[in-house]
Amino acid sequence: MTATTTAPLAGTPARTTRQPSARLRAWATRAPLLPALVFMIAVTQLPFVATLVISFFDWNALYPKARHFTGLDNYHQVLTDADLRHSVWTTVLLTVAVVLASLVLGLVLALLLDRRFPGRGAVRTLLIAPFLVVPVAAALLWKHVLYNPEYGLFNGLLHYVGGPQPDWISNTPLLAVEASLVWQWTPFMMLILLAGLQSRDQQQIEAARVDGAGDWQIFVHLTLPHLRRYLELGALLGSIYIVQNFDAVFTITSGGLGTANLPYTVYQSFYQAHENGLASAAGVLVVIGSIVIATFALRVVSSLFREEVSRA
Amino acid sequence: MNAVLRRNGLGLVAWLAGIVFFLPIAWMALTSFHSEADAATNPPSFAASLTLDGYREFFGSGGGASPWPALVNSAVASVVSTLLVLLLALPAAYALSIRPVKKWTDVLFFFLSTKMLPAVAGLLPVYLFAKNAGLLDNIWLLVVLYTSMNLPIAVWMMQSFLAEVPVAVIEAARVDGARLPTILARVVAPIALPGIAATALICFIFSWNELLFARVLTGVVAETAPVFLTGFITSQGLFLAKVCAASLVISLPVLAAGFAAQDKLVQGLSLGAVK
């Protein structure tokens, strides 16, 4: 009887002395992480909560006294407003077009750069450069220096061949914005896909070649399947950045001519129209859209990540 | 023979593609050295005489606003936020790689998920907060926001760079009686330093480029370089050389940082998923 009562008693002090030190050690391990974690939660998560709350209020900054709770009214208004609905559609169109075009162009360029030829490094540098121009500067370059109907470079070059002199931005505003973004984002896709191409199993390709497979067969049956996840990664990261694009739309068309995407609309509805509630509701919708993309993106990143970890 | 021809042919196509993609930048550079009259001609004047007038105009000799305050603001916002990011991300990355906490992958993915939420959705509360706290048109607000914008990228990149330090080497140093600061300085730093430098350069680029927050949250005092550039959006008349000079000067730090970080650029931009 004494044995059964002393045993836990003997165990208790031992556990209480060990427990704080183990806990202390766990906190010592965690400590370096905490500043970054707390900072991120405070600066990025709290504003989203605030946005969510504001989105349930009818709140025009010019009439602050008239602020009141309206439930889902803002969402109803955002989803039924023709302009806002149009901006959702524009966002989808812009994102899909830019991501697909830059992905295809990036793949072609990556395949070209994957072979040895004189000056490969120099060509790589030339191709990366568009990505390293400040986005506003790039948009200004396209708007004034390339697209200008009177003295822009495009019409200047068309002049030599006796071609027409179109007003690029007025005729095809969305395409004009998209082209400038494709120019900037193709290098990004190229870099990711080039990394993918260079991580291919060369022995497998040699083996296929010995077995008599042609270039096209190797591309379709070996290269493309290997590149699939790099293509997915490029598409998803590109989508995340381009869904949020503000600079090109703001600079090239100032959201006019039917090119206002959601970020621009959110900016405009609170910066110019002072509709805080509506802007927040639109913002929440952007978040929901991004979460859909992000869920897929996280899955792709995580599968590549786990492969890297297991390889290491 | 056929194979040699094809290889050179494709090399030529690659060169052509490179030139086509670079052409707008080359043309921008050339135009920036032309006089305004030569810059706005159709057909373009390729061989016009060169002048620095565009640059003189941009730097305010023509009576326009000087770009220097905006350039200084951008430098402060980018450099200080990058330093803050390193200060916060280095210990965090250490706790996610060399001495990992439990469930470290979950923490890593939390950082990533914050990057995937669009910044525009947090803009309004940040604006209202800044307005009530008297922080509008204050460069330090941008420093804090840019730090949060880049911290997840930096944590991911540095985690992947620190993870490249072999655990066995660290253990060996520890067995030999080396203390943590010594281990960090002598073992970890030499291996991880190029990666840390690349991370800093990429954070610098993203801060330097940012427009939306700077546009909404700054005015006359804290205006950054991209906001300064938006002044050219609706300009009319002869100003092409000036726009080109301005765009080029403001892009130079990014071009320099980007080329310096070229080898690690993919790893950074893909958040460490691609090496």
UniProtKB/TrEMBL annotation, chain A:
<keyword id="KW-0472">Membrane</keyword>
<feature type="transmembrane region" description="Helical">
    <location>
        <begin position="88"/>
        <end position="113"/>
    </location>
</feature>
<keyword id="KW-0813">Transport</keyword>
<dbReference type="InterPro" id="IPR035906">
    <property type="entry name" value="MetI-like_sf"/>
</dbReference>
<keyword id="KW-1003">Cell membrane</keyword>
<feature type="transmembrane region" description="Helical">
    <location>
        <begin position="33"/>
        <end position="57"/>
    </location>
</feature>
<keyword id="KW-0812">Transmembrane</keyword>
<dbReference type="InterPro" id="IPR000515">
    <property type="entry name" value="MetI-like"/>
</dbReference>
<comment type="similarity">
    <text>Belongs to the binding-protein-dependent transport system permease family.</text>
</comment>
<feature type="region of interest" description="Disordered">
    <location>
        <begin position="1"/>
        <end position="20"/>
    </location>
</feature>
<dbReference type="Pfam" id="PF00528">
    <property type="entry name" value="BPD_transp_1"/>
</dbReference>
<feature type="compositionally biased region" description="Low complexity">
    <location>
        <begin position="1"/>
        <end position="18"/>
    </location>
</feature>
<feature type="domain" description="ABC transmembrane type-1">
    <location>
        <begin position="88"/>
        <end position="297"/>
    </location>
</feature>
<feature type="transmembrane region" description="Helical">
    <location>
        <begin position="233"/>
        <end position="257"/>
    </location>
</feature>
<feature type="transmembrane region" description="Helical">
    <location>
        <begin position="125"/>
        <end position="142"/>
    </location>
</feature>
<dbReference type="GO" id="GO:0005886">
    <property type="term" value="C:plasma membrane"/>
</dbReference>
<feature type="transmembrane region" description="Helical">
    <location>
        <begin position="174"/>
        <end position="197"/>
    </location>
</feature>
<dbReference type="GO" id="GO:0055085">
    <property type="term" value="P:transmembrane transport"/>
</dbReference>
<feature type="transmembrane region" description="Helical">
    <location>
        <begin position="277"/>
        <end position="301"/>
    </location>
</feature>
<keyword id="KW-1133">Transmembrane helix</keyword>
<protein>
    <submittedName>
        <fullName>Sugar ABC transporter permease</fullName>
    </submittedName>
</protein>
From TrEMBL, chain B:
<feature type="transmembrane region" description="Helical">
    <location>
        <begin position="183"/>
        <end position="207"/>
    </location>
</feature>
<dbReference type="InterPro" id="IPR035906">
    <property type="entry name" value="MetI-like_sf"/>
</dbReference>
<keyword id="KW-0472">Membrane</keyword>
<dbReference type="Pfam" id="PF00528">
    <property type="entry name" value="BPD_transp_1"/>
</dbReference>
<dbReference type="GO" id="GO:0005886">
    <property type="term" value="C:plasma membrane"/>
</dbReference>
<keyword id="KW-0812">Transmembrane</keyword>
<feature type="transmembrane region" description="Helical">
    <location>
        <begin position="239"/>
        <end position="261"/>
    </location>
</feature>
<keyword id="KW-1133">Transmembrane helix</keyword>
<feature type="transmembrane region" description="Helical">
    <location>
        <begin position="12"/>
        <end position="30"/>
    </location>
</feature>
<feature type="transmembrane region" description="Helical">
    <location>
        <begin position="139"/>
        <end position="162"/>
    </location>
</feature>
<protein>
    <submittedName>
        <fullName>Mannitol ABC transporter permease</fullName>
    </submittedName>
</protein>
<comment type="similarity">
    <text>Belongs to the binding-protein-dependent transport system permease family.</text>
</comment>
<keyword id="KW-0813">Transport</keyword>
<feature type="transmembrane region" description="Helical">
    <location>
        <begin position="75"/>
        <end position="96"/>
    </location>
</feature>
<feature type="transmembrane region" description="Helical">
    <location>
        <begin position="213"/>
        <end position="232"/>
    </location>
</feature>
<feature type="transmembrane region" description="Helical">
    <location>
        <begin position="108"/>
        <end position="127"/>
    </location>
</feature>
<dbReference type="GO" id="GO:0055085">
    <property type="term" value="P:transmembrane transport"/>
</dbReference>
<dbReference type="InterPro" id="IPR000515">
    <property type="entry name" value="MetI-like"/>
</dbReference>
<keyword id="KW-1003">Cell membrane</keyword>
<dbReference type="InterPro" id="IPR050901">
    <property type="entry name" value="BP-dep_ABC_trans_perm"/>
</dbReference>
<feature type="domain" description="ABC transmembrane type-1">
    <location>
        <begin position="71"/>
        <end position="261"/>
    </location>
</feature>
